[in-house]
Design brief:
alpha+beta; 935 residues
Length: 935
């Protein structure tokens, strides 16, 4: 190998020169191949163009022959020569490409010709004539020689048949090659280009531009004819030696596409001439680049000695001295910013560092030994541990923390083989160790001598020597017993209801699907029973959630006690339970179980000294009649349960198709309500509220009506659907705004100014936008706030007392009044009357209806009126229909009344007419302003 820099520079020059030659050769080859591709593409395009012209002439020939055979089936030898010739001449008149049109007998004898012929002519020995006799199609010849001369032409023939289908004559159309020579003479070829026409026998018919030298020659003995025959249909290209002996690029097309005697057209250019430009460019590039390389080498050789070799030799000497241990050696070169100065500074600095390192290396070894001792001590104190195994996978070391965790003495662990230690407990771990593969966090269970189990997380890697031979294993481990217990608890929580310990919804679907599979195999019935505790919300509100949770746990125990071990009891959430009953003989078996479930739930429950009562509404769906999968069975049992709940507490009901239709009607009604809201089909009716003393109208309750398809729909038919779907919120917001606008319109018109009462549903009251809706309605209508009364039921207030109190405080701070509707039918608790800012109590009509004749109802009415008076609340009696009810209410001191005794709910125009008849105008109450909202 050369060692001097100059030698290396010369070798580098040689390599660069060779690379330059290689690059030049590569680019020359690329350019030459590109030139060849372009020349070949040009030849192929011109060849296809000429071929397309020939195809057009052939198509014209087929048209002429078809025309002759169709229009002149009467041409026969009996026609006079002049008459026959004129008929045939008419077909080729103006056709410059065609030489003649003739008719011959089946024997081949010429009987009629557009161009008169002298002498006897017979076509019977011609191949194309024989083929025309056997087919109705037009056939074409190859290159044929004209009778009586040396001219070459192409013939097309078609048989002419009589009424019986026999051949009566053959029409023959000849194509002169003069057209082809004219076309080929116009082809623009590059220098050295050539055009040839050759028949299948190898005879050259056309050779341009120097036809005299080749026309009439035969090239059958050359590879050129073989290449022409091998061109695919249409057109193709190839390389071959031409008649002149030069290698040429060829493009060829068959002018007459017949199997018997094809005629080939070939265009060519010399291959050498195509690549000549690329060769000239390569020679010029190679000369220029070689000169530049030589100039560069000369400059490098001149500067290398002074600026590179001398400093480099000084650095080499210093490095050799340092390698022999002379750590005092220095380069002597200046430590400047040049490359050699930087290298000298680094080398001299390294020598100084070596000397300094020798001074503290002994101290470092001592510190390393101390560090190893500390690490081993820390390992012994850590809860994680270290382990090692030898080549035979025997344990050679484990940390003391593992010994303490396992409960085994160290001497029974260390030294044991893999088979003795693992005892087939850890197959995954054993496989990794035996395969000498690294592993991480393999979880492994181990049994202590006392029988308890602990879990380990092990990681390890093989130990290899410098040659890659296996020498053992080392790794770490940690106690993961607590995490495994936590995972098991999470798994239990994921599949079990935390309150009752029953399977939850995640497990229920799987249980039902397994029960369906079992029912299909056993051909027994399967029932999905859904239970919902009646009035459970009231139990929670009355006695607190602690008692409610205890009740749910008790119900779960009672349900499990009523069914077999193979049946499933699950909790869906809240107060809903599911019981899956398997292997039932018939529907009556289901009824018996349902009765047991109802009886068990209805038993009084004593919880923390308090006796609680409840019942359950039950819906039943039976497989396969009521559903094909878990989702459908649950959905249909839910529909049956809701129907049972509508029948009253403690009812049960089997699913029927009518419930599906009812649910479909529910969905249809929901869609109709959405459309009704968009089309403004809702209207407010108003029922007057009168003063008990003088009968004047003091208020109006706004009641919602729906004009659906020309029919007025009462709210009882659609409000439940609106509440369930949440549409009650936008509908209620519209009603609130409309009622405020109408009440303000009455004030502006100068009519008696009653307050307007608007009912709020529980869903609407829980909506967080309620306060904003009230503010927007008051601001849009300019209605004084104290002219608006919002009516809520006791159940809506009691669902979430804290949230209800906060919402009502905000609304009543505006001056809006609050009325408790249907008072006395639910809780009637003095605590919430004290807590909530209530202004009015409305006595439910169920108490008013029989109050004149029923002392209990009369007592309830009296108690409510006295309660209102004591709390300074206005009391309004609902459902007043008779004079006796009016008299009693006046006697008891009721403040206001409403009902059919005074007026039915009516449209706004009728209510305005009623206002005009009002005898006493109410005093104008002090209005409350609505706080402005920043834009």
């Amino acid at each position: 190998m050369p060692t001097s820099l100059r030698t290396r520079l010369v070798l580098l020059f040689v390599v660069a020169l060779l690379a330059n030659f290689a690059a030049t050769a590569f680019h020359f080859n690329q350019d030459r191949e590109k030139g060849i591709r372009n020349a070949t593409a040009d030849l192929l395009a011109q060849t296809r163009l000429i071929g397309a012209r020939q195809q057009a002439i052939r198509a014209r020939a087929e048209t002429i022959l078809s025309d002759v055979t169709l229009r002149h089936p009467d041409l026969h030898p009996g026609d006079s020569d002049k008459d026959c010739a004129s008929k045939l001449a008419a077909h080729i008149r103006g056709e410059a490409s065609f030489d003649n049109l003739a008719v011959a007998l089946p024997s081949g004898e010429l009987v009629c010709s557009a161009v008169p012929r002298t002498g006897w002519v017979n076509f019977y020995d011609r191949d194309y004539f024989q083929r025309a006799l056997t087919t109705n199609e037009i056939v074409a010849s190859g290159l044929v020689q004209l009778y009586g001369g040396n001219e070459h032409l192409i013939a097309f023939a078609k048989s002419m048949r009589d009424d019986h289908g026999h051949v009566a004559a053959v029409a023959i159309l000849t194509l002169d090659l003069a057209w082809l020579e004219q076309t080929l003479a116009s082809v623009a070829l590059p220098d050295g280009g050539r055009v040839m026409v050759v028949d299948d026998a190898g005879n050259v018919a056309v050779n341009l531009p120097d036809g005299e030298g080749y026309v009439g020659r035969n090239i059958a003995h050359t590879n050129l004819l073989k290449s022409l025959r091998g061109v695919p249909p249409g057109a193709g290209t190839f390389e071959n030696v031409g008649p002149d002996g030069d290698l040429r690029l060829w493009a060829s097309v068959a002018l007459v596409d017949t199997a018997s005697s094809p005629l080939y057209l070939a265009l060519s250019v010399p291959r050498e001439m195509v690549g000549a430009p690329a060769l000239r460019e390569a020679i010029i590039y190679l000369g220029v680049s070689t000169g530049l390389l030589l100039a560069t080498l000369s400059l490098l050789l001149l500067g290398a000695g002074r600026f590179i070799l001398r400093p480099l030799q000084a650095l080499v000497r210093t490095a050799e001295q340092l390698s022999t241990g002379a750590i005092v050696a220095r380069s002597g070169l200046p430590h400047d910013k040049s490359e050699f100065g930087t290298l000298a500074q680094a080398l001299d600095g390294a020598a100084a560092a070596i000397a300094e390192r020798e001074q503290w290396s002994t101290e470092a070894r001592e510190q390393l030994a101390a560090s190893e001792q500390r690490f081993r001590r820390l390992n012994e104190l850590s809860s994680d541990w270290i382990w090692e195994r030898d080549e035979q996978l025997r344990l050679t070391y484990v940390s003391p923390s593992y010994v303490a965790l396992s409960g085994e003495p160290n001497e029974s662990i260390v030294g044991q083989s893999l088979a003795e230690y693992l005892k087939n407990e850890d197959r995954v771990l054993s496989a990794q160790l035996l395969a000498h593969r690294p592993f991480r966090d393999i979880e492994s269970a181990r049994r202590r001598p006392d029988g308890t189990i602990f879990w380990r997380g092990l990681s390890g890697e093989p130990i290899l020597d410098e040659s890659g031979n296996f020498k053992g294993f080392r790794g770490t481990g940690r106690d993961i017993s607590e995490r495994k217990r936590h995972e098991e608890e999470l798994q239990r929580q994921a599949t079990t209801d935390a309150l009752t310990g029953l399977p939850n919804r995640a497990v229920l679907d799987d249980r039902i699907e397994h029960a369906i599979d079992h029912a299909n195999r056993s051909q027994h019935a399967l029932a999905v029973v859904m239970l919902d505790l009646d009035e459970f919300k009231q139990i929670n509100d009355a006695v607190g959630h602690e008692w409610g949770d205890s009740m749910l746990r008790l119900v779960a125990e009672r349900l499990k006690a009523c069914v077999r071990p193979e049946d499933t009891v699950a909790r869906l959430g809240g107060d809903e339970f599911i019981v899956v009953l398997e292997d039932l003989a018939d529907e009556e078996s289901v009824r018996q179980v349902v009765v047991r479930l109802q009886e068990a739930i209805a038993e009084p429950a004593e919880i923390q000294g308090r006796v609680l009562h409840t019942s359950a509404s039950i819906g039943i769906a039976v497989y396969p009649r009521d559903g094909a999968d878990a989702a459908e069975l649950l959905r249909n049992s839910d529909a049956a349960m809701y129907h049972a709940k509508s029948l009253g507490c403690g009812a049960s009901h089997f699913f029927t198709q009518a419930l599906t239709e009812r649910a479909a009607r529910h969905v249809a009604l929901r869609d109709e309500l959405e459309v009704a809201l968009e089309r403004a089909e809702f209207e407010l009716y108003y029922q007057p509220i009168v003063d008990c003393n003088d009968g004047r109208i003091v208020g109006a309750e706004a009641l919602l009506r729906w004009h659906c398809g020309g029919t007025l729909v009462a709210p009882g038919e659609f409000l439940d659907v609106a509440e369930d779907t949440g549409l009650i919120v936008p509908i209620g917001a519209w009603a609130l705004r409309q009622a405020c606008v109408q009440a303000q319109a009455w004030q502006v018109a100068g009519a008696a100014s009653p307050y307007v009462a608007v009912n709020l549903s529980a869903h609407q009251f829980r909506d967080r936008r309620l306060f904003d809706q009230v503010v927007a309605a008051l601001r849009a209508s300019a209605l004084p706030a104290d002219r608006l009364v919002l009516e809520l039921t006791e159940s809506a207030l009691m669902r979430d007392r804290e949230a209800a109190a906060a919402t009502l405080e905000e609304i009543t701070a505006l001056g809006v009044q609050l009325a408790i509707d249907d008072f006395g039918t639910r809780y009637s608790s003095l605590s919430y009357l004290k807590r909530f800012p209530v202004s009015k109590l409305k006595i439910d009509q169920s108490f008013v209806r029989d109050a004149p004749t029923d002392s209990d109802d009369a007592g309830i009415v009296r108690a409510v009126i006295e309660l209102g008076r004591a709390l300074d609340l206005c009391v309004v009696a609902e459902g007043v229909e008779t004079d006796e009810q009016v008299a009693l209410l006046k006697a008891l001191g009721c403040d206001q009344m409403q009902g059919y005794r005074f007026a039915h709910p009516m449209p706004v125009r009728d209510f305005e007419a009623l206002l005009r008849l009002n005898r006493v105008r109410p005093k104008t109450a002090r209005s409350h302003s609505i706080p402005a909202v920043e834009p």
